[in-house]
Amino acid sequence: MFALGYFIDGVVYVLDTILEVYFWMIVANAVLSWVNPDPYNPIVRFLYSATEPVLRPIRRRLPMLGIDFSPLIVCVAIKFLQIFLVGTLRHWAIGLH
Known about the structure:
mainly alpha; 0% strand; elongated
């Protein structure tokens, strides 16, 4: 059973890293929305195409008050997943060691 524990621990580490990278991509997209970046820049296009599918449904459901709160909501959801899901899986993996 210890091998399964280490496997789950590895999956948890990768999941935590992916969530952290996506968190910072959302933050970068929000910061870029404050300036007027070149829309043809490959980095700007990548950030937009990677984050917009998650942000768009939240924007549609939120009332527009002049401020876009969708990045904040996604960042809070990511941090919740990191604490709850990653923490639970990590605790489960430690129990299997």
